[in-house]
């Protein structure tokens, strides 16, 4: 137990003896602190600033941010349909959204999202949903075929000047039944 308490005390002078060993990603170490280059912020200059202009506040922050960014240094991402990750530089999007700011809907993602929801539903609820949809599709197809046959019949009657039977037109369009 005493060894655990003494170990940090022995290592503290070693850390103070090498002050310039601090990591500085986009900047230079000046007097033991990381001085960030243009467009970067953070304790080790690891956060990119997304300023709308080159103007800066007296504290070095941005006067305005680009779309999708906020904060004094414009280094915190704004996620429309999701939440920022731990670094606040990327978004973790809610399904079915995607894109840098979770503001895009791709057709494949939407289909996948709702197919997964339908598959996880109770079979009774699923049949209650699918049966009416199947009836609607069948009714729409039937009505569409009848309208198409009527249009062709009307077109042929006006060009040929003959009375045609509806059954003959349907047979021409859809084959024998």
Can you describe this structure in just a few lines?
Residues 1-17 form the signal peptide. The chain is of the alpha+beta class and 177 residues long.
Provide structural commentary:
With 177 residues, the chain is an alpha+beta fold. It is built from four helices and ten strands. The chain has three domains: 60 residues, Ribbon (Laminin), CATH 2.10.25; 42 residues, no CATH class; 53 residues. It is 43% helix and 15% strand. A two-stranded antiparallel ribbon has the order 1-2. The chain has a two-stranded antiparallel sheet with strand order 3-4. Strand 9 and strand 10 form a beta hairpin. InterPro entries: EGF (IPR000742). This is EGF-like domain-containing protein. Keywords: Membrane, Signal, Transmembrane, Transmembrane helix.
Strand and helix layout:
Elements: H1 2-17, E1 27-30, E2 33-36, E3 40-41, E4 47-48, E5 69-70, E6 76-77, E7 82-84, E8 91-93, E9 97-98, E10 104-105, H2 107-119, H3 123-160, H4 166-174
Antiparallel strand pairs: 1-2, 3-4, 5-6, 7-8, 9-10
Helix pairs in contact: 3-4
The global form is elongated
Order of helices and strands: HEEEEEEEEEEHHH
Distance between the termini: 92 Å
CATH architecture group name of the largest domain = Ribbon
Low-pLDDT segments:
1-20
Q: Specify the structural class.
A: alpha+beta
Q: Count of DSSP E strands? A: 10
What is the total number of structural domains?
3
Mean of residue pLDDT values: 81
Radius of gyration: 34 Å
> What amount of the residues lies in strands?
5-15%
What is the CATH topology descriptor of the largest domain? Laminin
């Amino acid at each position: 137990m005493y060894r655990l308490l003494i170990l940090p005390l022995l290592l503290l002078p070693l850390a103070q003896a090498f002050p310039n060993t601090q990591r500085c990603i986009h900047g230079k170490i000046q007097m033991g602190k990381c001085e960030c280059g243009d467009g970067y912020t953070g304790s080790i200059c690891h956060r990119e600033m997304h300023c709308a202009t080159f103007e800066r506040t007296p504290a070095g922050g941005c006067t305005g941010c680009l779309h999708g960014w906020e904060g004094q240094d414009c280094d915190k991402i704004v996620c429309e349909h999701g939440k920022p990750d731990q670094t606040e530089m990327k978004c973790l999007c809610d399904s079915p959204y995607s894109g840098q700011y979770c503001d895009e809907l791709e057709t494949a993602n939407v289909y996948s999202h709702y197919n997964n929801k339908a598959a996880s539903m109770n079979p009774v609820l699923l049949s209650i949903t699918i049966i009416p949809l199947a009836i609607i599709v069948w009714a729409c197809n039937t009505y569409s075929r009848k309208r198409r046959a009527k249009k062709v019949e009307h077109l042929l009657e006006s060009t040929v000047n003959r009375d045609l039977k509806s059954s003959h037109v349907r047979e021409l369009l859809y084959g024998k039944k």
